[in-house]
Every structure is written in structure tokens, then in C-alpha cells.
């Protein structure tokens, strides 16, 4: 078994490293990593239903889809991520309680009364401190998870404040749970860096892995995969299950109703009803059809095109946030 401590803090790069190592290294592998602020959401989710896009854009929080299923999670430098890459073994890869034993053992060694909770979580005092997920391809298996050590919980709450009621779909919906950080529960305080070092040493002793550094060629191929897939529009938005969006609000006494049907991230049907002439409503519906359903694409499509008030406003930003 080998151990790789990923030095990058870019979510797209680290998720690309997971996939690259899973597909190209035959040995079992343990990874340890952190990300700068990011929302990492599940393979079968609708990102818009899970996040507050305005907060993500204003705070510089990345949005990245992962290979594994499950719900959306918030990452920052106070959150620690671990990954186990293994040859697929019958009876193990679906057994979360067995898979999380090494992590449970580490947390217990710190004097923390943790336990498996639900299908894929680890809780402390009834509050979630770790969410886990898995993915298999061929005979290879990935099991990974988060550890909320000293995460900005206010930012977590804001980032994951998606307007789920506006979306109709058959994708996976996140299960919201109350969370806590590990750090306040420690008998002896430590930094997140020390926590990671202790986790690394514990796993090396328990699993017996040898430390390996990525080669220049490894890094080049991971960089290419991150850019082509994990940081790209197609993977982030274009692989979403089909969904319908509806938003009906009034502004300044003027109604503004939007209905969208989205397939593979593209608006296929749009209907806009607002306090404007009928012809303007038709123009807006036609304007939206064929546009990718994401903030930057919508902003570009709307720029300089609102010739009539929508909900008592010609401001594209006003209308933009009624489309997400």
C-alpha cells in the first residue's frame, strides 16, 4: 500500500488526482488532502438545487462535481479529506461501517466518542463530523470522506442554502444534518496541520503504507484531467439529470414568474411571465432557450438585452437570480 499527501488545495485538481490514481495505480492507496473553499457535490445531483450561487460567486467558493454519489459537502482549509483506493473486494465496498473503521479508530484515539451514523456519516454527540461516499470502476474502488475539524460553519450554512423547492428532478437530494467541528471537543487543542500529521502517522502505522510522491508526469496528467473534466462546464453542469425550475415572485408589486426545462445543463424550454408587454415576455423566453443554465452563461446572455422591465426592473442581475 502507498500513501500520497496531496499538496494542492484546488478541489478540481485533488478530485482529478483521486481519479487518476484510482485508474492508473494498481496498489492500494491512502490519500490525505485539503481544499480551499469549495462545494463538492455528488455525481447524480443538480448543483443549483444544492447551493446558493450568489454566495459562491461573491465568496470565491468553487463548485465541483465528484465521481461518487451522495450529497453536497462544503470544504475549506479547516476541513480534512481522506481517500482509500483499493482493489474491489466482495462484501467490503458497500459496507460503510467496515470501511470507516480506520477513521473511527483514529478519532477514538483522540478521546472522541464517535460512531457510525446512518448510511454514510460519522457523528459526535449526535452531530455530524464526517460525510463519506464511494465509487467503483472495474475492479477498483474509491472510499472517501470529510472530517470537519475547524471549518467555517457559517460559510458552510450559507454555501449549502440551495432553493430545493424550486427544482423538480429525480436526482439525489442532500440530507441536511446538524454539524459540529471536531476541534472544540478535543481534550488537548491542536491545529488542523497537527491533526493532519497525527492522522497520517496513525494511518501509516495501522495500514503499513509507504509514502510516495507524485512524479512530474503524474502531476502533468492530473493537471490535464482537472482542466478537461473537473473544472469544466460539461462535467459540472452538463451531466446533471434533467430537471424543471419554477420561480414565482413579485417585486415592487409586479409579478415575475419563470418556468424552465433543462436537459444536460441546457435550457430547452422557457416561459417568462412578468409585468411587461406580451411581446417582451416572448422575447425573454426565446432569449433563454438554448442557453446553458449556469450563472455566467445566463449573465452573458442577458447583458444588454433587457429592453423592457422585468418585475419592475431592467437590471440583468435582478433577473439573473430569479433564474437559479
Sheet with the most strands: spatial strand order = 7-8-9-10-6-2-1-12
| Low-confidence runs of at least 5 consecutive residues | none
How much helical structure, as a percent, in the residues?
A: 25-40%
**CATH fold field value of the largest domain:** BirA Bifunctional Protein, domain 2
Most strands sheet = 8 strands, mixed
Mean pLDDT: 91
Radius of gyration: 22 Å
How do the SSEs run, as a string of H and E?
EHEEHHEEEHHEEEEHEHEHHEEEHHH
Pfam families: LplA-B_cat (PF21948)
Protein name: Lipoate-protein ligase A
Domain BPL/LPL catalytic: 24-203
Organism: Desulfacinum infernum DSM 9756
Task: Write up what this structure looks like.
It comes from Desulfacinum infernum DSM 9756. Keywords: Ligase. This is Lipoate-protein ligase A. Pathway: Protein modification; protein lipoylation via exogenous pathway; protein N(6)-(lipoyl)lysine from lipoate: step 2/2. By secondary structure, the protein is of the alpha+beta class. It folds into 2 domains: about 1-240, BirA Bifunctional Protein, domain 2 (2-Layer Sandwich); about 245-320, CO dehydrogenase flavoprotein, C-terminal domain (Enolase-like, domain 1), CATH 3.30.390.50. It is about 35% helix and about 30% strand. Strand 14 (about 255-265) and strand 15 form a beta hairpin. The mean pLDDT is about 90.
Amino acid at each position: 500500500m502507498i500513501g500520497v499527501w496531496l499538496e494542492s488545495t484546488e478541489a478540481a485538481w485533488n478530485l482529478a488526482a483521486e481519479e487518476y490514481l484510482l485508474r492508473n495505480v494498481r496498489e492500494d492507496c491512502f490519500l490525505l488532502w485539503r481544499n480551499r473553499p469549495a462545494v463538492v457535490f455528488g455525481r447524480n445531483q443538480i448543483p443549483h438545487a444544492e447551493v446558493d450561487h450568489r454566495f459562491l460567486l461573491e465568496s470565491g467558493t468553487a463548485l465541483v462535481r465528484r465521481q461518487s454519489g451522495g450529497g453536497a459537502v462544503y470544504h475549506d482549509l479547516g476541513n480534512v479529506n481522506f481517500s482509500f483506493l483499493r482493489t474491489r473486494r466482495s462484501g467490503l465496498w458497500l459496507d460503510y461501517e467496515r470501511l470507516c473503521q480506520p477513521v473511527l479508530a483514529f478519532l477514538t484515539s483522540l478521546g472522541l466518542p464517535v460512531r457510525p451514523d446512518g448510511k454514510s456519516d460519522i457523528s459526535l454527540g449526535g452531530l455530524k463530523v464526517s460525510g463519506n461516499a464511494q465509487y467503483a470502476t472495474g475492479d477498483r474502488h474509491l472510499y472517501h470522506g470529510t472530517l470537519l475539524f475547524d471549518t467555517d460553519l457559517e460559510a458552510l450554512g450559507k454555501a449549502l442554502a440551495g432553493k430545493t423547492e424550486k427544482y423538480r428532478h429525480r436526482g439525489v437530494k442532500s440530507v441536511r444534518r446538524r454539524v459540529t467541528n471536531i476541534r472544540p471537543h478535543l481534550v488537548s487543542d491542536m491545529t488542523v496541520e497537527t491533526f493532519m500529521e497525527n492522522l497520517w502517522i496513525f494511518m501509516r502505522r495501522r495500514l503499513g503504507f509507504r509514502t510516495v510522491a507524485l512524479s512530474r508526469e503524474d502531476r502533468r496528467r492530473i493537471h490535464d484531467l482537472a482542466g478537461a473534466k473537473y473544472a469544466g462546464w460539461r462535467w459540472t453542469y452538463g451531466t446533471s439529470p434533467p430537471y424543471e425550475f419554477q420561480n414565482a415572485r413579485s417585486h415592487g408589486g409586479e409579478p415575475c414568474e419563470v418556468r424552465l426545462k433543462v436537459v444536460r445543463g441546457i435550457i430547452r424550454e422557457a416561459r417568462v411571465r412578468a409585468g411587461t408587454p406580451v411581446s417582451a415576455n416572448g422575447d425573454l423566453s426565446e432569449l433563454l432557450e438554448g442557453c446553458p443554465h449556469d450563472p455566467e452563461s445566463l449573465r452573458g446572455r442577458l447583458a444588454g438585452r433587457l429592453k423592457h422591465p422585468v418585475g419592475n426592473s431592467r437590471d440583468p442581475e435582478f433577473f439573473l437570480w430569479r433564474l437559479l
